[in-house]
Specification:
alpha+beta; Phosphorylase Kinase, domain 1; Aminoglycoside 3'-phosphotransferase, Chain: A, domain 2; 5-stranded antiparallel sheet; 3-stranded antiparallel sheet; 15 helices; 50% helix; globular; binds magnesium ion
Length: 420
């Protein structure tokens, strides 16, 4: 019996030797490994990422480390997160064709995924910080959230497929535990890895003293742990999206899990809101107003695209175990009230998640560059304050904020208020 080679992490030096005999890779890069140019382009919190180029060909090689890159080996993590990422990517490619990079090679034991190099795409967060617009962004991601939410749910899947798939993703234990801790728990007490900008102490302490807020956050956590409505990306922030001026792709679904249908939409809106609030730290008055208006319009249009696509799929593809046509249309009964109810429930969850994500990116371990790159903390802290307080209002009022316009109007109001 041949033994599987032991896990070994890739380096810019050993990568050509390690991958140079894999046909699906050499088909793209060629057999002349001495000509391969390998660069370390890791940028996120978790993994190794290499760009491999040969002439006009290129690909991305991603490898999970046995720990979280951002913290080091004191925080061990399973290599199998690469397996979950791969499994999500192939489902997303099926459920929303063209939305994710093409995969060339996957090695579960070595935790390696080799995939299409998206070029000249740039991480959306960088574009938002630089004040760049992306045509079609809202439509693309609104549809992505709707298609993956609907097509991975009991509205679409046959019961055995859904249950088997849910069982597979229940194995992504450690990454779900990170979300449970860093997103839903740590921001609300003085946890070890927390940090926040000087000047925010008063606001942070008020948030942590608000028992109603903590209760509502924990109710949302219960939904995260107990609802298996659909397969989610699980980490759909603006660092998990890559764009050109006109094209948008989604990357990095290693946090994939079965959970509430509003989760990805809520996290995405939250990251747009943080981009919105942080803008005064990145540009002058001249461009500021126009660009902030564009971000709010993206939020509104994303929700419009989500709803339109979800309604379309409900009417044309509803073949799963939930709300079967045999109980409604086939008997001449409309299912539109049920659809309205489901959309309302998705929206309520999205608003709740949105508020919680706004808290964790300012209080917990993994802050985002939108605020962090504002070096002057006298400018940064008041902007983060607006974000924290609006997050609070979103969590508590998520049942009464009925439409996206109410959310963007609220953001517009906070953007002109002084909370510090
Ligand atoms: C240690 S991981 C911290 C965060 O980075 C990932 O991108 C997720 O957002 C996670 O919560
Ligand atoms: Mg990531």
């Amino acid at each position: 019996m041949t033994q599987k080679p032991e896990y070994q992490h890739l380096t810019t030096d050993n990568l050509p030797r390690r991958l140079g005999q894999i046909t699906s890779i050499t088909r793209n890069l060629g057999l002349e490994t001495s000509q391969w140019k390998v660069s370390d382009v890791a940028d996120g919190n978790m993994n190794l990422v290499f760009l491999v180029e040969c002439g006009s060909s290129s690909m991305i090689v991603k490898q999970a480390l046995p720990y979280a890159r951002v913290v080091g080996d004191s925080w061990p993590l399973p290599l199998d997160r690469a397996y979950f990422e791969y499994e999500v990517l192939i489902r997303q490619a099926r459920r929303d064709p063209g939305s994710v990079p093409e995969i060339y090679h996957f090695d579960r034991d070595q935790a390696i995924i080799a995939m299409e190099m998206l070029s000249p795409h740039v991480i959306l967060r960088k574009k938002l910080i630089a004040g760049e617009c992306v045509e079609g962004l809202a439509d693309r991601l609104g549809k992505f959230c709707a298609r993956t939410a609907f097509r991975g749910s009991d509205l679409s899947l046959e019961t055995s497929e859904k249950k088997k798939d849910t069982a597979i993703f229940q194995g992504n234990i450690d990454l779900m535990a990170i979300t449970e801790k860093l997103i839903f728990t740590d921001p609300y007490f003085d946890a070890e890895m927390n940090h926040h900008t000087k000047g925010l102490d008063g606001i942070v302490s008020a948030l942590r003293s608000d028992i109603d807020l903590k209760l509502e956050v924990q109710k949302m956590l219960l939904k995260f742990t107990a609802n298996t409505e659909t397969l989610l990306h699980g980490d759909l922030h603006s660092g998990s999206v890559m764009c050109t001026e006109t094209e948008t792709k989604v990357i990095d679904p290693e946090f994939g899990f079965y959970g509430p249908m509003g989760f990805d939409l809520g996290m995405l809106i939250s990251n747009y809101l943080m981009a919105y609030f942080s803008q005064p730290g990145h540009r002058s008055d001249n461009d500021l107003v126009k660009y902030q208006e564009w971000i709010l319009k993206v939020i509104e249009d994303t929700c419009i695209a989500f709803e339109a696509e979800f309604r379309h799929l409900w009417n044309t593809e509803r073949a799963g175990i939930l709300f079967p046509k045999s109980m409604f249309e086939d008997q001449g009964h409309s299912s539109q009230t049920a659809l309205d109810d489901i959309l309302e429930h998705i929206w309520e969850d999205a608003v709740g998640i949105c508020g919680i994500e706004m808290h964790r990116r300012v209080l917990s371990l993994a802050h985002n560059a939108d605020f962090e790159e504002i070096e002057d903390i006298k400018i940064r802290a008041p902007l983060e304050a607006r974000n924290l307080i609006m997050g609070h209002e979103l969590v508590l009022k998520r049942k009464s904020i009925r439409i996206v316009k109410e959310l963007t109007t609220m953001a517009y109001r906070y953007n002109s208020e002084k909370h510090l």
